[in-house]
Structures are given as structure tokens and as C-alpha cells.
Amino acid sequence: MKYKIAVCRFVLPVLLLLLIAISPSFAQQKMNQFITGLMAKMTVQEKIGQLNLVVGGEATTGSVVSTGVEEKIKQGKVGGIFSVSTPQRIRRIQELAVQQSRLKIPIIFGMDVIHGYRTIFPIPLGMAASWDMQRIEESARIAAQEATADGLNWTFSPMVDISRDPRWGRISEGSGEDPFLGSAIAAAMVKGYQGKDLSADNTLLACVKHFALYGAAEAGRDYHSVDMSRIKMFNEYLPPYKAAIDAGVGSVMSSFNDVDGIPASGNKWLLTDVLRKQWGFKGLVVSDYTSVNEMIDHGLGDLKAVSALSLKAGLDMDMVGEGFLTTLEASLKEGKVTMAEIDRACRLVLEAKYKLGLFDDPFRYCNDVRAQKEIFSEAHRKIARATAARSFVLLKNENVLPLARKGSIALVGPLADAKENMVGTWSVSADVSKATSLLAGLKEVAGTGVQVRYAKGANVSEDAALEARTSVFGKPWQRDSRHPDTLIAEAVRLAKESDVVVAAMGELAEFTGESSSRTDLNLPQSQKKLVDALLATGKPVVMVLFTGRPLTITEEDQKLPAILNVWFGGSEAGYAISDVLFGDVNPSGKLPATFPRNVGQIPIYHSYKNTGRPLVGDEFQKFRSNYLDVSNTPLYPFGYGLSYTKFEYSPVKLSKTSLKGAEKLMASVTVTNSGKYAGEEVVQMYLRDIVATNTRPLKELKGFKKLLLQPGESKEVSFEITTNLLKFYDHNLRYDWEPGEFTVFIGTNSRDVSSANFTWNR
Ligand code: BGC
User: Fold this and answer.
1) Is 214 in the pocket of ligand 1 (CB under 6 A)?
2) pLDDT, tens only, 510-559
3) According to CATH, what is the number of the domain 384-592?
4) 132, 150, 288, 316: which one is catalytic?
5) pTM above 0.85, yes or no
6) Which string of DSSP letters, residue by residue, matches 450-504?
7) Is 302 an active-site residue?
8) Atom 7 in ligand 1: which residue has the minimum CA distance?
9) CATH architecture for segment(s) 647-761
């Protein structure tokens, strides 16, 4: 009897709970049933049609463009379209699909909504410099709001490729060099885009890209080969993709590069073994722009062969190249792919559409009223302005900034009156005519008490051909045809008549981004000459540096009293920069990527290893790991950024120095604002595993907190450390921590830290 009661009271409920846990949820079952029913009606060709993603023609990033799109839609040969927008256009295309194709399957509409839709936020590298996950999530939320109001439901973002090579133009599109920061950002972006309910009419399906390792292209040349040990992959490059998966991202884009000898789009180990089996990803995998076809040039066979290889590897949707559309049926007949593989891919595409609510209402994202009200709204622009101001990094300041609201300012430089340049790369949906230039922003923010006058001073580069190559997205750059000496003379005259000079310099927006790799990261000669001429006037010169990558501004750092790095701050950048210049906002950005002294130091990053012959001190030593001609240290370290106020750190305090097993360690510092301004500070925590079975980095970022401190205010900042933070992949790819001695470092950047040691045993 007692036994029976025990079974009823304990065993049965536990079994029931187990059953519920392993059986697909009711909603999932409903979706499965619906899709199974639909697929039962589909021909092979219709199933393959769902795997075809075409480009609508508004923007392309490859030399191939989709053709005959309308006809293909009617024939059920298109699963998705990207780069078409507005409710009217999208409604018209959707009507073709749901009224004129046999099975009336709606189309999914994608776009590269990368750092904002019409309200443009800073480029992703700039957003990363804010170290502010709430603002980053909010920027994605706003982008989703605007993009869905304009008819879209899928974005090819977040881009989470770790890059330690500023020669690579696409470093601007990611979060920089660090996997811990990159993972936090990846999760925040996915949350922002997808919200809690993908079927809501203001959430977007996110797509984490480019899987994988795209940021490690050899020599920083775009699309180049990648060769990396698995241990490095798992510890340093894969975590942000994994973080996006863990945050529930609905789709993944495979990258152009090869991984261990096989291009990502056809790499089964990557797309199936790691992504689906190891990480449990359940969504759809789309190729990059013609990346399936490009495997022909990689040397993996003809279109039929590479298409079959991709499908079998775990790729579900083929972007633009139509290898799937044109060859998979024949491959099926020849037994080179199976029906189960086509079904898998088709199901995943249909599931994405189902989750977006497109089967309930294919026009749910086509709302003209929303488009009118929600895009580029005052409220969104205000947030973008405040966010941009918090992404800027003050690199140097010898008592010049903030500027006084009096007297006269000479605003000079090729980027001062350049609203088309403010939004930065990958802002295809931006309306650059609505962006604010620094000149316009500065005049407005300065108010009537300050005289702001402008002279161009120089072209961006003396190399006109280089400038011309940056107009791919239809933003032509007008060169000034006047003689360089005339330009400089005008700027110098203005500088002499003014109290202070603000020099807007750096890169054109399209100096970074796709296919925009560079080998020379110095300020161009034309701008260097202008700097020298301005300095010769004896007036204080503040450089406002526009850039999409770390630049080698070693000389400028020596010469100029103040440098504010403003990345490409988006549509509101002109205001945001002025807010910071006048001290209405105190800069708080910190570098998400190390700035090298020269290109020869690349790759340079904070989490390097010791080597067997480490350099001790900073002087050259024979037979030690260093250079004859330049120091090992960077120009500005990872995590670096100044403020108008001063933060003082107490030494690191530990709750214990010897721990065991599942215990927790608290490491704290007290941070005091000892300056005159209220300010935000990003407190950073790094760890080192002193003795391990594998070589380990000297420092790895493992925590950060951003806090606001009023003048005179102190706050204690604590980081909880558990053995989870000590884990790493060893040479057998076993993920665990090893007992022993560790160091914790806490400080204002990766260089200026204080530390304490502790031991941890099993
Ligand atoms: C880029 C992707 C982008 C795609 C679609 C490709 O060239 O690598 O990042 O999402 O084009 O525009």
C-alpha cells in the first residue's frame, strides 16, 4: 500500500514532468503539423524553391544580381527576398506569392539592417565602445521597430566576427577583438531584434554572421583564407556566435572563408557537428552572397557539386547564387543528395516564416501608418544622439576639452561638413540627406555665444583614385578641386583668427566595410600636412577622428593636445560630437580593439600569451620576444578611454584568497570620481590562469560594469567569480577549469589595473 502511494505521489508526477519536458510544446506541435501538412503538398521543385533567396535590386554586395524574380515567385521558386523595402513594394511582391503561386507560401523579406534602419546608430565597432548592453539592445530594438514598419521581417545582423586585424575593412561591422565583450553584445543584439515574440509585428528575425572566423582573414584581406587551431577557435573566436545561439537567434549566415580547408558554406563539421549537434541550434542557415557558387573558385568542383556539398553540410538557404535552385533536383535524381536533406532545409525555412506569423497574415509587416509614424521619429533620433555620444572615445586630452561656450572656433578638415559621411558603412537604408554634419551640429549646439567658422583645409587623401573607390553604395564623394596649398592656407587663416581649432579628420565611411581592406593605416598625407600647418599657428587643436578601425595615429598622438575618436556615429553624430566637445556629455567610450603603433605590430590584442621569452620592462632585449624598431606595447590598449573627470581606483579586495569547488569569490574595488564632472566609467575585470596544462593568455576580460559617478562620489564595484569564469578549452577541446593559482586584475583599461592572487582547488 505504502509503495503504491509513493508511486502515485512522487514517481508519477516526476514522470509526467519528464514527459512534458521532452515532448515538443503544444505550439511546436501545432507548427510541426502545419508544416508537415504543407510539405506533403509540395513538389520537389517547390521545396527547392523555398531554399532560394534572391536580391531585390536596391543594394547588392556582389557582382551577381537576381533576374526574372517576379516570374520565379509565381512559379514558387523563391523563398525569400532581401534589399526591398516599403510596405507598398513589399505588399506588391507578397501578393505575387500568396495570390499567384500554386501553394501561396508567403515570402520572407530580409535586409542588412546593421546599425539602425533609418535612424542610424554608430557603426557596430562604435556601439561596442559604449560597453553599454542596455543601449546596444535598445538600438537593435529601434532598428527592428523601424525596419518592420517598412515591411521587413529579417535582418542579417548581428555580425559578431572577432577581428584583431584593423587592416580588414569589416572590423568596423563587429564588436572588435574580445570574445567576452563580443558575446555580451551578440546576446544583447539578438534580444533587441527578436524581442520576446517573433510573431509580433515589430520584431525581426535576427541572423548571426558570418559563421565562422571571417574576421581572421589572412593579412586582413577580405574573403581571404583562414587557418586557425581549434583551440584558438573555441576559446577566442567562436564564443560570440555561440552566445547568439544561446540567446535564441533564429538564423545563421555562413561565411565566405574556408575553415580548416573547407569553405564555411560547405563545411559539415561547422554547420552540423558544431552548430547543430554541439550547440543545439534549431533555426535556419543561409549562405552569404553567392558563397555557395564561390566554392567553385575555392576549387571544390562545379556548381552542382558545391551545391550538393552545401546542402549536405547543413546549409538551408542559398543567397543569390541559385545553385540550389538549378542543380539540386538533378543531384537528387543522381543520389547525390537525399530527399531528407531537402526536406530538412525546406522545413527550417518554412518554420522561420511560421514563427514570424507570415502564414497567419502575410501582410502583417505592411502597415503604411506605422511607416509614417515610427521611422526616423524624434524619439528614436534622441536616443541615437545620446547613444552615439557614449560611443566616442577620448584618446588624449591635455586640458583642451571640453570647449568653453564662448569665443570662436575654427572648424576645419575634410570631414567637418560631410553629412554623407556620418552614417558609416553598412547603412543601406539610411537617408544621408537627413544626417547632420559636424558643422551643422556644432553651430546648433554651440548656441549664439560662440562663433563657429569653417574651412575644409584638405581633401581626405591626396590619392583621388583611392577616394573614388569608396562610392560603391552610391554615396559619391566630392573632391575639392582647389590646389592643396590653397586649401591649407584658408584653414590656417581661419585658425589664426580663432581661439581654438577643431579638426575633423580620418577616414571616409567606405574606407571600411566590405571589400575595403587597407594596408596603410596612417592618416593620409594630405591630412598630416594640414595638422602640421594648424599646429604651427600655436592655437590649441582638437582632432575629431572619424574612423571605422583602429588607425596608427602615433604621430598625431605625439603632436596634438586632444583627440576624440568618434567612429562613424550615425545620423545624429553631428549633434552627438558637439555634445561631447562642449561637455554636455562626458565621454565614456572605451576601445573594443587595440590601436597599434604601426601596421607591423598587427595582430595586436590584449589577451596575448607570455611566450617562453617574454620581454621584461619596455626596453629592447636581445633574445627576448620583441622588435628592434618598435615597442611591444600598443598605442592605446584595449579598454582604454579617458573622461573629462578623474576616476581613482582602490586596490583590489578579495572576499577570500583560497577557494574550493563551487564556492564564489567576490573581487571588488572602490572607484572614486575625484574630478569636477559627473561621469560614467567602465570598470573592467580580467583573469589570468597562472599555471595550467595549456599556455593561457596573460589577461582575459571576464567582467565589466559601467557606472555613473557624481563629482566626489565613490562606489564599490564587485565582480562575482565562479569556476565557470575559469573554464577554457584545452588541447583536447575539453571545456573545464583547472585547479591552481590565478590573478584577478581590475582597472580602467586592460593596461592600468591593480591585481590580487587567489587559489582554487577542486
Ligand atoms: C555580406 C553580408 C551581407 C550580404 C547581403 C554579403 O556580401 O558579406 O554581410 O549580409 O552580402 O547583403
Assistant:
1) no
2) 999 999 999 999 999 999 999 999 999 999 999 999 999 999 999 999 99
3) 3.40.50.1700
4) 288
5) yes
6) SEEEEE--S-S-S-HHHHHTT-TTS---PPP-S-HHHHHHHHHHHHHTSSEEEEE
7) no
8) 61
9) Sandwich (2.60)
